[in-house]
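Researcher: Quick one. two chains, 371 residues in total.
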Amino acid sequence: MNESQLISSCLKKDKRAWNIFVQKYSRLIYWAIKKRFSGSNFNFNQDDVDYIFQEIFLVILQGDKLFQVKDIKAISGWLAVVASNKTVDFMRQKIKEDRKLVVNMTEIKDEKSEQELYDRDLMNVVSSFINTLPAKQKAVISLNIVEGRTHSEISKIINIPINTVSTIIVRAKQKIREELDKIGLKDL
Amino acid sequence: MGKMEQDLKNYFKKESGNIKKTFQCLGDEIFLDYLEGRLDSQRRKDVEEHFCQCSFCLSQLNLVFEAKESNIRNIGGKVPSKLIKKAKALVNDDNPNSRRRVKRMKKNLFFAGMILFFITSFIWPKYFVQSLVAALILGIRWTFESEGGRTLIMVVDSWRRNSHDQDDAIVKRLKDRFKSPHL
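Model:
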């Protein structure tokens, strides 16, 4: 059974096809849920992951979401997006219901150590600099630093030449170093 | 990783940790259209600009990239088998197609049973009445199960309940419809 046949059989609610579909994409969906959770400040547990996992398959099946898929090559990426969106919706709902936001303890401490003050100043410099960057440059830096993407990967993701990506990264880091020097904070 | 890079990472982590999904963020459908290359050039440009401005959608795009680059059968950790079992159970064995098949088979069984009992009544004269009654019951069941039988019941019921003023006109219309121009 090829991918197109699998999808069309799932739309007909064929048991065998559905079993193959679940087996094939369960790891991807599970991974996407966990990734979205762990990238947030949300305090989640295994039950939350399990609940969303079931919800996603239910939405795919009952909402006939697979009808929207025209190009089979896009399905894995799209399922990851669906899983991620569903996780975000869940988090928002939970936050609304329980107000279980994780409180950043460093923000409510009265006494701060010297190191903490230094870190705060450093973060202020970094934040103010990054906010002045054009959107595209900010996206490049974010993908490079946080997600650990290589220059060529970034160029594929946001569709810009690899040389531009490299230039943006080098210049941004240089600029931050200069800003830190100006106010007497050196990059350690 | 240098201290500065760590700070940059902290900054973006803090940014992405606060989910900033807005009504402008891309929904599942637009995302799919973008991934499948079905957006016109202007819309595509708008979407790509949005990716650069929105940390949430950028992280979604990164997720897509990672999903596409990985082997989906090995990505992430192992999924608990009870979860997979539960997800599989969302489609029951009695899906509409198989239900229809079972219904058709049942209808045919009534018909076959009716014929069998009818023949039996002649083979074993000792059980003539019993076999004939069984054939009659199965025959009635078969009639009620069939589409035609149900339609006939509905027509008769409707005819019985409603007025008969227009009966002649309806009969005439039906006769006209089936009248062959060559006769």
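Chain A touches chain B through 74 residues (CB under 8 Å).
Researcher: Thanks, that's what I needed.
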